[in-house]
Amino acid sequence: MTTIKLLPYFKKNTIEAGCDEAGRGCLAGPVFAAAVILPPDFKNELLNDSKKLTEKQRYFLRPIIEKEAIAWAVEAVDNEEIDKINILNASFLAMNRAVKKLKIVPEHLLIDGNRFRPQTEIPFTCMVKGDGRFFSIAAASVLAKTYRDDFMAEIHSEFPNYDWDKNKGYPTKKHREGIKKHGVTKYHRMTFRLLDEQLKLDI
After folding, report:
1. Between 20 and 30 A from 165 (CA), which of 137, 151, 152, 179?
2. ∠ CA 186-141-133 to the nearest 5 degrees?
3. What are the beta bridge partners of residue 22?
């Protein structure tokens, strides 16, 4: 097996925070984002883009990241806010909230993706597929994903008809069948296409 070599930083001798989000493509629940400042000598052979890890690996890595990070924060933007400002702006907002929550102010932000709308004066660099290139973004992707999965598992117990403990709110067949049969919940994103067929939903 080839070891994935992630980079420890983009700018040397700089307090750098990696930022990533989870849940953009979901039909229900918030979008979560994390910001992580790692020490420059941080190394972990398992850490990678959270989408390339198993659930077990993500939850194994989370306490390691939280323990070894210089600072980390996780924030969310709920489905009602998403419907008001759209998912792209909500993703930016969640990342900004996570950055502002850090106990140490970073000197530079590494943003996963090709766009960002900052709410601070902190310089930033966007990195396409950055979660597979830099440790700090990969760490942020793991935190954002696991905290969001925890949230979806929690609300699954409140609304068990949508299979959220397994699909985490993504548009799976079972999720859409649940919407068709039981209607929508207070956690659904009403501006999203909730069903394949354009049917009127009972709100």
Report:
1. 137
2. 150
3. 32
| Domain of 43, in residue numbers | 16-146
CA distance 143 to 162: 24
Asked if residue 184 belongs to a domain, the reply is no
Mean pLDDT for 141-165 is 97
- Name the token pair of 186: 């207070």
Distances (CA, A) of 99 to 1, 82, 170, 177, 186: 35, 19, 26, 37, 28
For residue 172, is it within any domain? no
CATH code at position 98: 3.30.420.10
Comparing CA positions, the residue from 76, 26, 27 lying closest to residue 185 is: 27
- The answer to whether the beta carbons of residues 110 and 17 sit under 8 Å apart is yes
pLDDT in tens, 98-128: 999 999 999 999 999 999 999 999 999 999 9
In a domain, 158, yes or no: no
Which one, of 77, 58, 80, 200, lies nearest residue 140 by Cα? 58
